[in-house]
Amino acid sequence: LILTGIDIESSFQFGWTPLMCAASVADFAVVRLLLDRGANACFEIDKYNVLMAACTAHASEENILKTVELLLSRNADPNLTCRRQMTPLMYAARKGYPQVVALLVASGSDVNAQDENGYSALMWAAQHGHKSVIFTLLELGADKNLQTKDEKTAAELAKINNHSEIYSLLSLAANNLQGRYHETMKQEAIHKFLTAVSDHRVGSFSTFDNLEVFLHGIGLEHIIGLLKEGDTTLRQLLIMQKDELVQVSL
């Protein structure tokens, strides 16, 4: 169709362009072809743009990640918002894509931006029970104490939606990762992700060590080694009784 001279920005159903349609299913090859032929990576309709469509695609996360990375390289803005003031990061967090979340933050997306109802990316992940996204966001500087317009925190949203493990995590964690120390950890996390991308190991990239993130978050990073010696997992830590916690110096 392209070779026959069809307009690269022609409108399909709902006014979507071919690029928007390809991005919405994370068809990386077609997205790249269309971009190389001059398609607008920043196209939007009713304030919903191509990057948002890619972040909500029903596809493997690896394909979504490649598609999002390509769009960002063609100047798609990760901080633009839709009519509800949601960013691509919020869409990716709501869908449960931790690698995409990490890439967006590494590309400048505001990790603590809030939509028209006061929801941040962390809140969307908590409401939908995406634990791996929550750990990634906490590592990258998400503030768990932000509140929605009806005064709900991420922990409370997790509780309301019966995500008990996430509720326990967010209730116990404290925002001790602040200032220069927090910024150093954030930059290390971003570097870890970008190194995986540059080494073409995106498919094998896994979210950060859950236990380590949690212990850093509550200021107990000094006992990481002790817990790992005993092969203690985060799940086990969260359900420990008082006498068991005393044994591990908590």
TrEMBL record:
<dbReference type="GO" id="GO:0071546">
    <property type="term" value="C:pi-body"/>
</dbReference>
<keyword id="KW-0040">ANK repeat</keyword>
<protein>
    <submittedName>
        <fullName>Ankyrin repeat, SAM and basic leucine zipper domain-containing protein 1</fullName>
    </submittedName>
</protein>
<dbReference type="Pfam" id="PF12796">
    <property type="entry name" value="Ank_2"/>
</dbReference>
<dbReference type="Pfam" id="PF00023">
    <property type="entry name" value="Ank"/>
</dbReference>
<feature type="repeat" description="ANK">
    <location>
        <begin position="84"/>
        <end position="116"/>
    </location>
</feature>
<dbReference type="InterPro" id="IPR036770">
    <property type="entry name" value="Ankyrin_rpt-contain_sf"/>
</dbReference>
<dbReference type="InterPro" id="IPR002110">
    <property type="entry name" value="Ankyrin_rpt"/>
</dbReference>
<feature type="repeat" description="ANK">
    <location>
        <begin position="14"/>
        <end position="40"/>
    </location>
</feature>
<feature type="repeat" description="ANK">
    <location>
        <begin position="117"/>
        <end position="149"/>
    </location>
</feature>
